[in-house]
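In response to the reviewer comment on reproducibility (Comment 2.3), we provide here a single inverse folding case reported in full, input and output, so that an independent group could reproduce the run without further information from us. The structure tokens appear first.
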């Protein structure tokens, strides 16, 4: 597709790094001078040490003097992981003097759902456990980014709308996609986050923090 060719060209010309700590593992995607590196660390007492070692190794290879943009996933998700991602991203952005781009968990998951289905309006449901859920509805714009739509109906109705066509994730970002009776198991990767980072960068200006936007509901009879 033409959009994929254009995205690949844009990414090859831009040095990007993104941090994702919303799940039980922490991941980093790095594209520098056309080379892609990724890192994933499960939760452990020395997780931060492993992350810093990876970053130190990459800085020795690339120096990070030509970073074009830094992104982090700002939730919803793991309280500790999101703050760790923000801390690392802010520190690197301050040092490199480049833009910091926040990406919502449900927004990124909508991109993954679109890649799997081609659907441009996505209902995304994330399991927060304890019979609680985060729900959002996104619409793909002309640049490929996913814009949050205003939900003018009840959470219960949104759940019903999503019954036959929804994308459900847990905090590990392992997805179950159900469309017209078919079920697929999908998993997000650091390279896909780099793809979406590039899409966001094309229309993002400045350096500011954005709060994630979503609905937060408890399970009820509408959820099956």
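Designed residues, in position order:
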């Amino acid at each position: 597709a033409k959009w994929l060719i254009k995205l690949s060209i844009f990414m090859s010309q831009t040095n990007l790094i993104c941090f994702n700590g919303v799940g039980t593992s922490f991941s980093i995607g790095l594209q520098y001078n056309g080379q892609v590196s990724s890192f994933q660390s499960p939760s452990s007492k020395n997780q931060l040490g492993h992350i810093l070692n990876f970053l130190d190794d990459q800085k020795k290879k690339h120096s990070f003097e030509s970073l074009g943009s830094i992104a982090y996933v700002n939730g919803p998700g793991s309280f500790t992981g999101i703050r760790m991602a923000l801390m690392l991203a802010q520190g690197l952005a301050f040092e490199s003097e480049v833009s910091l781009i926040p990406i919502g968990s449900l927004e990124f998951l909508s991109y993954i759902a679109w890649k799997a289905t081609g659907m441009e309006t996505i209902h995304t449901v994330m399991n927060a456990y304890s019979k609680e859920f985060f729900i959002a509805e996104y619409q793909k714009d002309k640049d490929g980014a996913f814009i949050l739509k205003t939900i003018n109906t009840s959470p219960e109705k949104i759940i019903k709308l999503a019954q036959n066509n929804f994308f459900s994730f847990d905090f590990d970002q392992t997805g179950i996609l159900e469309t017209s009776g078919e079920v697929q198991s999908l998993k997000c990767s650091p390279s896909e986050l780099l793809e979406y980072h590039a899409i966001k960068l094309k229309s993002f200006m400045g350096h500011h923090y954005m709060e994630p936007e979503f609905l937060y509901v408890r399970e009820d009879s509408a959820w099956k």
